Amino acid sequence: MDLTPAGPVGEVAPGAGSLRLVRLRLSLALIAMAILPLAIVAPLAASALDGQRANERLRVERDATTVAATLGTTFDQIGQELVRAADEPGIRGTIAGTRGASATARLVLGDLTAETAIQVATVVDERGRPVLRIVAGKVVPVPPSSTIDPVVTTALLAGHDEVTTGDIRRTAAGTALVGVAVPVFGDGDTLLGAVHVDVSLTSVLAGSIAGLRASESASLLDRGGTAVASAPIPSADAAGSSGGTTAGAVLSTEAIVGRDWRIAVAAPSALVGPSLALIALLGLGVVVIAWFIVLMARQVLRPAEELDASRARLRDLWELARVDSLRDLLTGLGNHRAFQEEMDRQVDTSRRYGAPLALVTLDLDDFQSVNDEIGHAQGDEVLAGFGQLIGRTLRFADRAFRTGGDEFALLLPHTDAAGADTVVRRLLSNALEPPRGRELSRAISFSAGISSVPALSGDKRQLIGQAEAALAGAKRAGRMAVEVYDPARHRGAGVPLDLGALSASVAETVARRLLRPVYQPIVDLRSGKVVGYEGLIRPLPGSGFNDTGALFEAAAKTGRTVELDHACLEIVAAGARELGRDGWLTMNVSPRTLEVPDFSPAALLRVVAAAGLEPARIVLELTERETVEEVERLRRNVAACRESGFRVAADDVGSGNAGLRLLSQLQFDIVKIDLSLVQEGALHETSLAVVGSLQELARRWGASVIAEGIETPEQLRVVRELDIAAGQGYLLGRPGKAEDLATIAMTAVDLDALLGSEDWLGSIARATPAFGAGTG
Question: How far apart are CA 770 and CA 767, in angstroms?
Fold first, then answer.
């Protein structure tokens, strides 16, 4: 049989999950920090690029305008030259047939055709017939059947000095030409003929693009938008020398005034590459940002990792201390606390899966006489041997506990009452006739009571009550007996009231205020001064409850925890008037009260105001008597209480898993270490380590630490060595009435005398009168 108490060990703190969450949030923050500069720089870079493209487009448009203007000027100059030629006497004489005039005409027209743009110059008579034709400065024969150019016909109808420009036409070789003509008049405005030239558009365009960049090209478009002439396309070397990267051509056009032609200029978009200095600066910026991000990550993660490591150490130490705190040192079995926790777990498992569970409670018969006969030391050996005998008799899945001096309990899963009866009788047989050389040095008998779920009872409280009732029946039958619970024979005081009766009892206790307050001093462990009191509640005799624990257990079972808490708060606050105006007043509150939907700190403020107390003096002690169901709501309401001036304490840290669960879910102003850890701390190094780790965790939060349950000088010495600031317990002062405690509030406790006192029980009695039972 496994003697280690089984059951879930609560998480000390969600350390790994918290650290993962910190890392996730930090990663998101750092990614945002890395993206932010890019989000800022990208629009600026896009804006700069758009501006550069707009500037390039404007430049190309300006170049197109310049080429158009230059082309227009060239044609104007050709027209002016023709007008001057029309006024030459030689031209007139040539048309009239005057001898010697043709020589002068040839000179004039030769000068015109010497221009590269003018290919052919012709002089015609009034009928449009050519009389002189010059090509490249040389007179050529006039074709006998020359076709009259339409521009000449138009020019013969024009007035003085009026220049006529024809339509664009192409030669057989593909050259684009345009005719320009001016009429020639004699004396008395007599029309003699006209001077006509053919202008090469390619040559004119080539002479007009001198101002363009090497990477640009120009085209002349006719009225239909067809390109009739183009400037030479730049070579690869010229384009490569522009120092840019082609990102797409930009096309810009400009109309030539008076001719309805257009100039199209095309240029590649040159995007200037970043300089080496800029690249180096950007690289340095990236390195600096990366270094800064890593530095920030380390600064943020270091305390989180330290806290996570501290939580891990606390979890390990807590596990060791919990195992010690749940084991009976004499027998090696589980102790009473382990029995309660395992009982909850086993009953829940049985209820969930419908499997039977048997509970056996047994007492050794006349064990006091054994102590009197062979002495307490030998009696302890008998108890230890009986514990080993239980371990050898039960199955591996069974659980055994020593719940009192000579009281034991057995939990037998998947076993009904009849099966448990067989197991217990076998154990009794082995105890009465111990094999030679085995655990028991002498025969010993016991009485046992058995009950089970679900056959005989429905819940934990009823199961225990039935087993104890059966045990009482076995003792009445003459001891050395084993009895299974029988409702007909064992119904009595050992069996609890049903839920309806319990609920009515709690409601009557609350309504009639059958409660009285007692207050236990909280002492500064350096000076001995009383720094505050814990307000506790004791049920009055008429309430039907023997102790506070039974009252609150009944309230939890019947769902009346909240109304009982409110009544206790009012009674404790009202009774504290006699304690003076200084020092703390701590009051116990169940988390269930703070997690209800309609909770408001205003109700607490009204309670303390009615008692004449200030919220700054009040400490709300959270004790997890029931499972927390609304953790987020509890966090919000605790925060609201703190904002209203109250302080919040984690009570009973070290009592099972409850205090530790609350410690992992909330941050507290005060951490109260449970009396069990303090009592074990004087004996076990693991318990001391847990107390030290809890104190370190509280120090990180800026919280105070109070040690509860100081009952011996040795415990006081250990707590003071741990440098815990304050403590409470029977050694320092018992719970009492407010009016009695007010007389000693001004007197410091002599801690040195308590440490040196051998008669410390007498010191307690002399220090404070005993009012009520237990330390709360």
Answer: 10
